[in-house]
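PROTEIN DESIGN WORKSHEET
SECTION A - STRUCTURE
LENGTH: 423
TOKENS:
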């Protein structure tokens, strides 16, 4: 059935004495516009890139949006900034000195805790078909003027957050900046710019029994279904939002999901596959973003899984060893460690391809996989005294999950910078 034509349209039609053919054509165009209006909007939307190369989400969906907020240019269409190689750079690396940034947690200050080499600081990521724009701290701070930027996720996202603060803080006078922590929320304030850069601890994004920002070492992890608003209320009003979640889901092949409330005397808990649980979280995140973020004013990023290097046999090393004492990069361009679950990347590709909001995907997984040299290893603050057995075997307590700063995570922020201003 053809939709009714408005009275004003009818008058125009009569005045113009349109032929029956033109009248039918006009009605058809109006009908199609009403029926497929949302699809037409998508035609003019910015593409969400979910890469289909090895180690990247297997589905690829392109959605075109109007010009994304904060964009000042475009990356060459032929260039995938996440595909490339590491090149040694002693001229521009590192971006800052460890001793110059007081905001780095003691778990990431490798030089202070005795790491004997600095080689991990002198590598620059070089995409295959273009170059990354130079990180411009002045542009970043001016863009954040009067705004909020927030990183949400686990300790790896906190590392990226601290890296961003270290990249920017030198431009801010000492009495014009501060960092405070309020339970799960840490806020760096640049008073001169009326801007904040924040980190919110939510390792699953949804409510879980690991939500305490200090005491969260729980092996029997439980995630509550449909609970993203528990944390999401603290994200409202943010202008640039950077999510991550992966490591905490890797407890095995299944995850425990709470269907009721943590306050229930008898808890209704089911076990589902890690992939289904992760898919549930991704859908919840996208629903929250669609309801609470404005695509015309705000930007949302999602950082892919951060690899660990706990098994040296993955890169041809001796069995039983790990990232400890590793000072060189993995040179195999097809390397993919056993710790990175491809099925999770497939879930991301599947769910993001259906997003009605422009999510910018930061695919740091493959490029970080080459960097077995960049972990904190044993050069960090140890929260518990080491036993004689551990001291005798450093491999037993080496941290092959987190990254030294300055280091790899500064590159993550260079990629974030590139995608923010040159999507």
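SECTION B - SEQUENCE
RESIDUE ASSIGNMENT:
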């Amino acid at each position: 059935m053809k939709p009714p034509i408005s009275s004003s349209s009818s008058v125009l039609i009569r005045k113009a004495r349109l032929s029956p053919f033109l009248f039918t054509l006009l009605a058809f165009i109006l009908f199609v516009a009403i029926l497929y209006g949302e699809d037409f909007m998508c035609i003019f939307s910015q593409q969400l890139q979910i890469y289909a190369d090895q180690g990247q989400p297997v589905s690829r969906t392109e959605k075109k949006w109007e010009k994304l907020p904060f964009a000042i240019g475009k990356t060459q269409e032929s260039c995938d900034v996440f595909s490339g190689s590491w090149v040694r750079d002693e001229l521009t690396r590192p971006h800052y000195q460890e001793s110059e940034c007081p905001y780095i947690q003691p778990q990431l200050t490798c030089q202070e805790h005795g790491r004997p080499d600095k080689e991990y600081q002198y590598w620059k990521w070089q995409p295959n078909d273009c170059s990354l724009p130079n990180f411009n701290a002045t542009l970043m701070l001016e863009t954040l003027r009067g705004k909020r930027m927030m990183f949400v996720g686990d300790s790896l996202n906190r590392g990226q957050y601290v890296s961003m603060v270290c990249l920017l803080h030198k431009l801010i006078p000492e009495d014009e900046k501060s960092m405070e922590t309020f339970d799960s929320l840490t806020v760096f304030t640049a008073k001169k710019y009326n801007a904040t850069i924040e980190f919110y601890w939510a390792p699953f994004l949804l409510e879980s029994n690991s939500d305490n920002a200090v005491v969260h070492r729980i092996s029997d992890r439980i995630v509550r279904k449909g609970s993203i608003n528990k944390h999401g209320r603290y994200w409202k009003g943010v202008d640039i939002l950077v999510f991550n979640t992966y490591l905490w889901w890797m407890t095995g092949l299944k995850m425990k999901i709470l269907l009721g409330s943590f306050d229930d005397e008898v808890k209704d808990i089911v076990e589902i596959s890690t992939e289904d649980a992760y898919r549930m979280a991704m859908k919840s995140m996208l629903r929250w973003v669609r309801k609470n973020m404005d695509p015309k004013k705000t930007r949302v990023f999602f950082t892919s899984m951060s690899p660990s290097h706990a098994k040296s046999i993955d890169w041809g090393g001796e069995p039983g060893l790990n990232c400890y004492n590793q000072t060189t990069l993995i040179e195999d361009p097809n390397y993919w460690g056993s710790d990175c679950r491809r099925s999770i990347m497939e879930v991301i590709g599947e769910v993001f391809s259906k997003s009605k909001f422009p999510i910018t995907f930061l695919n740091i997984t493959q490029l970080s996989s080459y960097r077995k040299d960049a972990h904190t290893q044993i050069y960090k603050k140890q929260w518990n005294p080491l036993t004689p057995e551990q001291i005798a075997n450093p491999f037993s307590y080496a941290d092959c999950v987190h990254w030294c700063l300055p280091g790899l995570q500064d590159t993550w922020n260079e990629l974030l910078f590139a995608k923010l201003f040159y999507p």
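SECTION C - NOTES
Residues 1-18, 31-62 have pLDDT under 50 and may be disordered.
The longest strand covers residues 195-201.
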